[in-house]
Amino acid sequence: MKKERVVVGMSGGVDSSAAALLLLRQGYEVIGVTMDTWGGCSLEEDQENGGCCGLSAAEDARRVADVLGIPHYVMNFKKEFEEHVVRYFVSEYLHARTPNPCIACNRYVKWEALLTRALELGADYIATGHYARIARLPNGRYALQKSVTAAKDQTYALYNLTQEQLRRTLMPVGSYEKVQIRQIALEAGLPVAGKPDSQEICFIPDQDYAGFIERYTGEQVPEGNFVDRSGKVLGTHRGIIHYTIGQRKGLNLPAGRRVFVTEIRPETNEVVIGEGDDVFTDRLVFGQVNCMGTEDLAGAGTVTGKIRYGHKGAPCRVYDLGEGEMECRFMEPVRAVTPGQAVVFYDGDTVLGGGRILR
Questions:
Q1: Chain centre to alpha carbon of residue 333
Q2: N or C: the chain end with fewer CB closer than 10 Å?
Q3: Dist CA 335 CA 261 (whole Å)
């Protein structure tokens, strides 16, 4: 009987390396692929940030593939990455929204582009080292379910995957704790068993988002006014790309008390400052909806809504506003709803769907 073929996206880290190992043990024919997406940092920066920029990542993945005895290829995805991740990231900040590049990368590069290449190689599936699980529900739909380790769960950043992508995906790491994955890699003699995790934004190794945006666009973002809700000028800000909703540090305002960014107005180049209570709200509007575990978010009843990666989630209900927009109403106010981020809905451990926060 012919083995099913799976292409594993190998980043050179321990998680994707362990995924390849686990799939081999499960009897699949495994092919390793490292995605060359950016390469905009030096070798030293790449190594300091966990080998996430592509230079040392490919070499680490190749070494793992040699130990496992599987073929390994490096594929160029720079065009897709720049179009769907970098340009999106820059545009969102310039329009006073806070992007999530990992969500965009997962949907359009790690899945859409990689799956297309994998099918061309005659593969049945693609696989990654993400901490999440995939299940087929009684309603026939495919959905993500949280990993067994809450601390590493990555379902929030994967909510935007399509039914076809989920059907063609394997996620073996989601059934393990991180410490177990490192132990599995160590016992198998994988050279990346102790490699540190990569930084969140792989194409900005120094984490200076504003500096990256200005270098990328070749333009300096203008200064503007800090104002209160009534429009009173409180001071001068460094440019809207430096700020996000709920931010308190780095404002350099002599307010004499704790103040926060409550709104960013790109049309007037103003950053609105308020009190702690001003960053709480019990509702938000979202669009670009992706349904996963259900076809009807508005009919799902009381669910758990998560408004950022680090948010634990809160009870809410979803209402259809028409014209592609939906409203989420929380039972109690939540802090710092941020346009540009995702809101993701869960029924227990199962991802029902989500969308991009508009306001």
A1: 24
A2: N
A3: 12
Q: What is the DSSP letter of 150?
A: G
Full-model pTM: 0.91
Residue type, position 99, single letter: P
Query: Cα(290)–Cα(166) distance, rounded to whole angstroms?
Result: 13
Q: Out of 52, 202, 291, 316, which one is annotated catalytic?
A: 202
Nearest CA among 313, 334, 19 for reference residue 155? 313
Share of the chain above pLDDT 70, in %: 95
Is-catalytic flag, 202? yes
- Dmax (CA) for the chain in angstroms is 74
Which residue in 102, 105, 291, 316 is the catalytic one?
105
- Render the burial of 110-132: b for 16+ CB within 10 Å, e for the rest: bbbbbbebbeeeebbbbbbbbbb
> How high is the pLDDT of residue 45?
40
Place of tokens 């259809």: 320
DSSP 221: P
What digits encode the pLDDT tens for the residues 294-352? 999 999 999 999 999 999 999 999 999 999 999 999 999 999 999 999 999 999 999 99
pLDDT band per the 50, 70, 90 thresholds, residue 2: confident
Q: Is 53 a catalytic residue?
A: no
Q: What is the structure's pLDDT at 48?
A: 40
pLDDT digits (tens, 9 = 90+) for 342-359: 999 999 999 999 999 999
Helices (H), the chain: 14-25, 43-48, 55-68, 78-81, 87-94, 101-105, 114-120, 163-167, 178-187, 209-217
Amino acid identity of 300? Answer: A
Per-residue pLDDT, 54: 54
Q: How far apart are CA 253 and CA 282, in angstroms?
A: 28
Could you please report the per-residue DSSP string of 234-294?
Answer: EEEES-GGG--TT--TT-----SS--EEEEEETTTTEEEEE-GGGGEEEEEEEEEEEESS-
N-term to C-term CA, the chain: 54
Render pLDDT for 70-116 as a digit per residue (tens, 0 to 9).
999 999 999 999 999 999 999 999 999 999 999 999 999 999 999 99
Among the listed residues 16, 8, 109, the one whose alpha carbon sits nearest the alpha carbon of residue 60: 16
